[in-house]
Amino acid sequence: MSFGVLVAGRMTMRDFISYVIAQVLAQLPEQLCFTLSSPANRLVGPEGLGQNGGGPGYLGQYNLLSAFIFEVVATFLFLVCILGVTQTGGATQFAGLAIGLTLVAIILSGST
Questions:
Q1: What is the three-class DSSP state of 42?
Q2: Any idea what the Cα angle at residue 107 is, between residues 73 and 89, rounded to 5°?
C-alpha cells in the first residue's frame, strides 16, 4: 500500500523510506515474542500457522497462485478506493465509510 501511495505522488521518497523502516521496527517485538514463546503455548493446527489458507483438503482447494492473484487484486481495489476518496475534490466526509465498506467487501469475498 505504501508503494502505491508513493507512486500516486501522495508521499515523498523520504517519507516512504521512514515509513518502511518504522513498519519493520514495529514488527520486531512481535517476532521476538513469537520466537521466544514455546510451541505448546501457540494456537496452531497440525499444519502450522495460516490455517485459513487453501491447498488440498481446504474448501475450494485454492493454490498459491490463486491466493496471490486475489491479494494483488484486493490490494489494488483497496488502494484505488483510498486514493479516490481522499483526493482533492473527493467526498472526504464519507471516506471512512467508503474505505470501511470496501474492506468489508474484500474480506467477505476473500473468505470462503
A1: coil
A2: 65
* 7-41 pLDDT, tens digit each: 888 889 999 999 999 989 998 888 887 777 656 55
Q: How confident is the model at residue 1 (pLDDT cuts 50, 70, 90)?
A: confident
H/E stretch holding 81: helix 64-86
Q: What is the tens place of the pLDDT at every residue in 76-105? A: 999 999 888 888 887 788 889 999 999 999
The reported pLDDT for the residue numbered 110 is: 81
Looking up cell 479516490, which residue turns up? Answer: 84
Whether 37 and 25 have beta carbons less than 8 Å apart is answered as no
Instruction: Give the angle subtended at the CA of 11 by the CAs of 7 and 17, to the nearest 5°.
Output: 95
* 106, amino acid identity: I
Quote the CA–CA distance of 107 and 28 in Å, as a whole number: 26
Shortest CA distance to 83 belongs to which of 14, 3, 13? 3
Q: Are 102 and 78 in contact (CB under 8 A)?
A: yes
